[in-house]
Amino acid sequence: MQLYRAPMHPDEIAIIRAQVAQLGAKIQPLLHPHGALAKRNAYAHLWLGIRTVFGETWRESAISSEIEGFVRWIGENPNEDYEAFTGPVSRISLQSESIVAPKAPIDPGLFD
Fold first, then answer.
1. Which of 20, 53, 56, 66 has the fewest CB within 10 Å, making it most exposed?
2. Is the Cβ–Cβ distance between 8 and 50 less than 8 Å?
3. CB-based burial of residue 16 (10 Å sphere; 0-12 exposed, 13-18 middle, 19+ buried)?
4. Are the beta carbons of 23 and 59 closer than 8 angstroms?
5. Are 78 and 27 a contacting pair, CB within 8 Å?
6. Proportion of the chain in helix, strand, coil states, percent, rounded to 5
7. Are 30 and 78 in contact (CB under 8 A)?
8. Stated pTM of the model
9. Where are the alpha helices (H) located in the chain, listed in sequence order?
């Protein structure tokens, strides 16, 4: 079943940003070292997780409550792989082909 909605409201994004800011400070000392990184960045870890799990277009295609659930999960499991998240992950289409109006044919004599 396809669900359709407008992109995430700015207030919803602000709530997610606040949660990431608060949680990033909390989990920073809990992150284990990573071989490819000189120092772990908890904020980058959270944002990368959101993009990995919900897609690059998460602001337009994800449900804010599911992202908030993922952020809480990372807070409880700061060193887990993102793929271990078992919460809901919905992707919402922004438009339906049945909703999009067909383009009008160009009439060459219209502006002559």
1. 56
2. no
3. buried
4. no
5. yes
6. 50, 0, 50
7. yes
8. 0.74
9. 10-27, 42-54, 58-61, 64-76
Q: How far apart are CA 7 and CA 63, in angstroms?
A: 9
Q: Which two tokens stand for residue 100?
A: 């999009």
Instruction: For residue 72, give both structure tokens.
Output: 């809480």
Identity at 85, one-letter amino acid code: F
Which residue, chain included where needed, has tokens 């044919």?
105
Token representation of residue 49: 């997780």
Q: How far apart are CA 95 and CA 69, in angstroms?
A: 25
pLDDT per residue, tens digit, the chain (112 aa), is 445 567 888 999 999 999 999 999 999 999 999 888 788 999 999 999 999 999 998 888 889 999 999 999 999 999 999 999 998 888 665 554 444 444 455 555 555 4
